[in-house]
Amino acid sequence: MTVPHECERGGSSRAKICLNQSARGARSMSNQYNDDMDTEMGPRVMMVRELEANQDSSLDDESEEDEDDRWRELARGQDVPSDYWHIQKLIKYMKVGNQTATTVALACLKDQDLSSDTNQMAIRECGGMEVLVNLLEAQELKCKLGTLAVLKVISLNIDCRRAITDLGGVQQLVEILDDPARDLQILAAETIANVCKIRKARKIVRKSGGIPKLVDLLEADPHILETPRTSMTPEEVELVDVVVAGARALWALSTSQKNKEAMRKTGVVRLLARLLRSDHNDIIVPIMGTVQQCATEANFQLAIQTEGMIPDLVEYLSTDNTEIQKHCASAIFKCAEDPVTRDIVREHDGLEPLVELAKDERLLEDKPLIAAVTGAIWKCAISLENVKKLNTLGIIPVMTRLLQDQDKEVVTNVVGALAECCKVASNRAEVRAHNAIKPLVLHLNGTHQPLLRNVARALNECAKDKECMLEIEELDGVRLIWSLLKNDNPEVQAEAAWALCPCIMNATDSGEMVRSFVGGLELIVSLLKSPHTNVLASVCAALARVALDRENLAVITDHGVVPMLAQLVLTAPGPWGARSGPVYRCPARAASLILPDLTVLVLGPVQLDAQDAERSAARRRARPGQSAGARRREREQDKFSETHSLHYSAKSQAENELLREHLASAIANCCSWNNNCHQFGALDAVRPLVSYLESNNKAVHRTTALALHQLSTDPYNCITMHHAGVVSYLLETIGSSDEVLQEASAGCLSNIRKLALSAEKFKYEN
C-alpha cells in the first residue's frame, strides 16, 4: 500500500531507496526490517542513499541538479553538519517513496539526534512537518508508530509545536487516542503533552473533545497502582505508561482556565484523588502537577477538599522527591485560602514538614520549591491557631533569615507570612529583635507589586508596636509607604493606605510628619476618586486619622475632601440608597412642622414598649414625607435586591461594609472644621448616611452614629436626619452594649431634643 503524502512545496521527483547496491539486497533488508518491527520499534542505524539518476526514468535531472546546487551554496555559506543533509534526504524519500521506503526512512529518522536544533531545522525547511502530519492519517501501524516517535521528540521545540498545530496535527493526535493500540495512545498523549504548551493547541484539544478521552486514559485497576514495576507483567507496565502519558497531557492542558472547568465536569477530581495514592512516582508527579494547577479555581479547591486529598498532600511533603514536595506545597499554597483546609493541614501535622523544608539550607538553591513552601506557610498563617503552632516551631527566625533571599517570589511569600504572624503582639517584638524591620523598609524601594503589597501589610502590623514604629520612623519608612499611594496597582494603594493608619496614630509627632510630605495630603485626597472599593475604604480610614490634626484637616478641606466624601455617601454601593424627601432651610419653622414627633422626646424618657416598637417598624416601611410612588419604588428596589442578592459575593459585601464604616468615620472627624458640617448637609449627604443604620454590621452602626452626632450640631442637618427617620434607629442603638455607640446615639438625640425645645419656644413666641 502506498501512502499518499506528496508535499506541495517539495518539488522533487520520485526516488527509490537502496539499502545495498542490488535490488535483491533492498528486498532482503526490507523483509528483515519488517521482522524486527514485530519485536522492537524500528531498525538500527541504516545508511540510505539515492540510486543513480539513470536508474529511475521519472527523475528530473535538471531540477535535482538545481537542488544540489542550492544545498552546496548553503553549505558554503555556513558550517552545516552532515546530519543536516542526511535528514533532508530522508524527508525527501518519505515524500516520494512507497510504504516500505517510508517506514524505513522513519526508522532512520528516529535514530537521528532529533533534539538538535540543526536537525529540527532540517526537518522544517524541507517540508518534513507537512509529511509527518500527513502520515498520522496512514492506516499502517508501523508508519504511525514511527511518525509519533519522531513527533514526540521534535514537539519539544516551540517552532515544531506551532507547525504541528497550524497543520492540523492536534486533531489527528486526538483521534489517535481512540485507537485500541496502547503504544499509539502513549505516543499520542505524550505528543499532546508537548504540543499543548502553546495556547492554540490547548484550545483545539478542548474543542476536539480530547479532554474526556485523556481522562479515560486515567482509568486503571487499583491493583496496578499498588504494584511496583519490578513485579509487573509487560502488559501491566504498558497500562501504567498509558496513565502516565494521559496525566502528562492533562497537566499541560490544565494551564488553561476553560480546560480546568472542562476537566472538572468530566469527573477528573475523583480519579486524581485515587491516583494520588499510587506507588508509582512517575504517576504521582504529573497528577500532583495537575492538582496544583487546578487548585487556583474555587470549584476545584472545594472538590479537592471534599475528596479528601489534603491529607495526601500533607503526607507527600515528607517524601524524598523534591518535585513532588514542590507540587504538594504549591497545592496547599493555593487551597489554604479556605479556613477548613488550613485546619486540616494543622490537624494532620502538615506545618512541621513545611517549616523543616524552609529550614533546610540544602534546598535554598531550589527556588521554586522554597517559593511553594513559604507560600504554603503564608496562607496557613492566616489562621490564628496555625500561628500559635508555627511559633512553637520557631517560624520567625526562619522567615527573617529568608528575607535576604534574592528571589522575588520567595521574599514575597516570606513577607506575607511575617505579616500574618505579626498580628500576634509577641511576634512583632521578635521580628524587631531579629533586625527584620530594616530589610522590610528597604523592600519598599522595589518595583515588584506583590512584594510591595505584602511589605505594606507587614509594616501595618509592625507599626502597632511603639518600638517598631520608632524604628520605622528612623528609617524614613512612613515616607516610603506614602509614596506607594502613587503606584498604579490598586491593591498596593489600598495596603499602603491601611499601613498609614497605625503609622499616623503611633508616630511621635504625626501631624507635623504628615505635613512634611510635600503633596502628600493632596495625593491621598485625590484617591477618593478611585473606582476600587478597597482603595476607597482604606483611604477613608487614613483620612479619618489625618483629620484628627486640625491643621491637616484644614489642608484636606482646601483640597476638596468634603464634596468627595459627600459624593461617596451618595454613590456608596449597597442594597439601599438615598431617601427622597424635602430639605428644610428654616430650622425653627421646619421643627414646628414636625413638633409632635419631637415633643415626644422632650416629654418623656427614652423607653420603647410594644407599641413604640411597632411604630418604629412602621416608620421604616413608610417614612414621613414619602409619596406613594416613592414607597412603591422602594418596595420594587427591595424586591430587586432580594431577587438579585446572589450577584453580591461575600467578598464584595464585606468590602462595601468596610467602606461605609470608614467613610462614616472620615465624615465624623471632618465635621469639626469651619462649616464642613453644614456643607455635608448642603450636599445632601445626611439622608443616605441615615440609611447606613439599616446595616447588620455593628462597626458601621458605631461610625455612622458618630457621624450623625457631629452632623446634628447643624440645625439643618438635624431636621433632615429626623425627616429621614433617624429617631427610630437611635432609639434602638442607644440600648447597645457598645458604649461608643450609646454615647453617639444619645448625643444625636440630645441635639434633636434641643432643636425641639427651640421649636417649642419659637411656636410659643409666635
Automatic annotation (TrEMBL):
<feature type="region of interest" description="Disordered">
    <location>
        <begin position="614"/>
        <end position="647"/>
    </location>
</feature>
<dbReference type="InterPro" id="IPR011989">
    <property type="entry name" value="ARM-like"/>
</dbReference>
<feature type="compositionally biased region" description="Basic and acidic residues">
    <location>
        <begin position="631"/>
        <end position="645"/>
    </location>
</feature>
<protein>
    <submittedName>
        <fullName>Armadillo repeat-containing protein gudu</fullName>
    </submittedName>
</protein>
<feature type="repeat" description="ARM">
    <location>
        <begin position="209"/>
        <end position="268"/>
    </location>
</feature>
<feature type="repeat" description="ARM">
    <location>
        <begin position="519"/>
        <end position="561"/>
    </location>
</feature>
<feature type="repeat" description="ARM">
    <location>
        <begin position="168"/>
        <end position="210"/>
    </location>
</feature>
<dbReference type="InterPro" id="IPR000225">
    <property type="entry name" value="Armadillo"/>
</dbReference>
<dbReference type="InterPro" id="IPR016024">
    <property type="entry name" value="ARM-type_fold"/>
</dbReference>
